[in-house]
Write a structure and sequence with these properties.
alpha/beta; TIM Barrel; four-stranded parallel beta sheet; 16 helices; 8 strands; globular; binds zinc ion
Length: about 350
């Protein structure tokens, strides 16, 4: 049974290197001529970058091959991998629809085509054999003109059957000069009942407190506990959740090592701020959600109790999860029902007692 919720995953960065390599081979893409073999390609694709900007260039490489025609191919493989290898039960997939439109068209036609892209992503995500509850987060982008970003918010307002929220992505060095515009777009979204998250406080360049009140969740937000812990009580009071993606920060040069995340978790927990652990770009990093959990445990950044709190928080802050409990709790209910049905004497409370004893051995 799939168990986990993933709140921060990019459609572009989710393509694992092997799947992208096979796709490029199938298409006989010219890109392949740059690489002697798969090993060279994988090394290029997954190696750490010095800055967020350099890292984002890789996104554009994948965006170019994700078109209206090829999106079903990538989404099928993405969901299959998430279900089989990661135990993902709930997935919010984020992307900038403008960058999946036909780049031979003019701006207005590309804006019009975004509606079709949302339909393709939505319909391709409904797989019977790998059932995951999915929804889309549409990303505005710092490089896009106002008209395209406004149209992205309008899609979030009008395509609620497939879309559960909006985000702001792209280099955070470009936020400052357009902050008023982004605030107006977020205010417009909130006034229309759209859920909001945004890449903010990811690097020291992305610290813009004026945008915080408009976000229900904060994409990364690690610089809040690291550089601005004074903001934590207000974040807790507002019920905002940090989407922490451990593998990202060493890849973008933001942190040297995930060990530097220890104060992020400690200070957030102390202040009562929720954290959802996410992958961001599971393909580019070659790190799946379950490995993100394990890496944090192995590095002694969190323990199992904290991990469970983060896994619970992910379902609580999910924009499109409509149930009170996470699947693990539902499975507990099924177990109890089975115990009752068979008339077994062992109550679930006894089982809990047993697992408590086992945990303390
Ligand atoms: Zn991200």
């Amino acid at each position: 049974m799939a168990l986990y919720a993933e709140l921060h995953r990019h459609l572009g960065g989710s393509v694992v290197p092997r799947i992208l390599w096979r796709f490029l081979q199938k298409e006989q893409s010219e890109l392949l001529t740059q690489f002697a073999d798969y090993g060279v390609f994988e090394e290029f694709y997954t190696r750490p970058r010095n800055t967020l900007e350099e890292y984002l260039k890789l996104h554009s490489m994948v965006e170019h091959v994700q078109t209206a025609e090829s999106l079903p191919y990538f989404i099928y493989r993405l969901l299959r991998g998430a279900y089989v290898f990661e135990n993902v039960a709930y997935l919010e997939l984020r992307y900038t629809p403008y960058y999946r439109t036909d780049n031979r068209l003019g701006e207005t036609d590309r804006i019009d085509q975004m509606n079709q892209i949302v339909s393709i992503v939505g319909e391709s995500s409904r797989l019977v054999e790998y059932p995951i509850v999915t929804s889309q987060i549409l990303c505005m982008h710092t490089k896009l003109p106002y008209a395209a970003n406004k149209a992205i918010v309008d899609l979030a307002i009008n395509r609620r059957e497939f879309v559960c929220g909006i985000d702001l992505a792209g280099s955070d060095r470009l936020y400052g000069e357009r902050m008023e515009e982004f605030i107006a777009l977020y205010a417009y979204a909130r006034n229309n009942g759209v859920n909001t998250t945004g890449h903010l406080y990811e690097t020291p360049h992305g610290c813009h407190a004026e945008l915080l009140p408009y976000l229900m969740r904060i994409g990364h937000g690690i610089q809040i506990p690291l550089l601005h812990p004074e903001l934590l009580p207000e974040i807790a009071a507002n019920g905002q959740c940090l989407e922490v993606c451990p593998s990202t920060y060493p890849k973008t040069g933001t942190l040297k090592d995930i060990a530097e995340l220890k104060p992020v978790f400690d200070r957030a927990f102390d202040a009562g701020v929720d954290i959802a652990i996410c992958t961001d770009n599971a393909g580019l990093h070659n790190v799946r959600l379950t490995a993100e959990y394990e890496n944090l445990l192995t590095a002694d950044i969190i323990g199992f109790d904290e991990l469970r709190a983060c896994q619970d928080a992910a379902f609580r802050h999910a924009f499109a999860w409509r149930y009170a409990e996470r699947p693990a709790a539902m499975l507990g209910g099924l177990l109890q029902a089975e115990v009752d049905r068979r008339g077994l004497s062992c109550e679930l409370s006894d089982r809990e007692e047993l697992s408590r004893i086992a945990a303390n051995l």
